[in-house]
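We treat protein structure as text, and this decision shapes the records that our systems exchange. The remainder of this section carries one protein's record, kept here as part of the documentation:
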Amino acid sequence: MSVNIFISGANRGLGLGFVKASLDRGYTVFAGCRNPDKLDELNELEIKFKERLFIISLDPTKLESIQNAFSAVKLKTSKLDILVNNAGMNSKSSGVDPAIHLQIGKLQSEPMLAMFHLNSIAPLIMTREFLELLTASGKGRVINISSWFASLSIPQKGNYTYSASKTALNMLTKILANDTVKFNIIPIVVNPGWMKTDMGGKNANLEPIDSAKSILEFSENLKIEDAGKFFNYDGSEHPW
């Protein structure tokens, strides 16, 4: 049976890793990104896999954009098996002085709220809007990309907005699981590891595609009792 997957933030880093890993597994891929016409590597993949890769315009912080993305996917398929809410930002990629998110004396509410919107709220709204297609799968999975910075049991220092926004995502996913299990939909949060991405930097020890491959592999074997859990990319449980 064919597997359909939607990936947000699919133009680079882990999102692009998910696209490549999904294509390797024979999935049909819907790649959501903000600027579909400015994606050299993703556009090249679309040409190579024109029957299985569809680039979808998506701004996860805009409801109309999410709804348009849903309509575009629904034109191609009647079900969605996996939703990967990968789009996110940290202090370095937020478009403002990183100190606004890192230093108590420089914290500013509006930039902080913008990060919370993308990192915490958008995945929840994405899931709500794609619920119909996920339900039609019969075993829908929602993979929300979190971080080890979200863990309350691991001491954190200074990374106010990113850490808190990912902790919020964890809690929202745990609550979401209570509502989706009746549709046989399994939402989880995953720490993808320290990767060589724009966020992780060149000194990281993990390639994005390797993290994505591992996440997709263990997610295929998820059981309903796994709904709402916090995992590492290798399938082991991460401490809350």
DSSP finds eight helices and seven strands in the chain. Residues 188 and 229 are 5 Å apart (CA to CA).
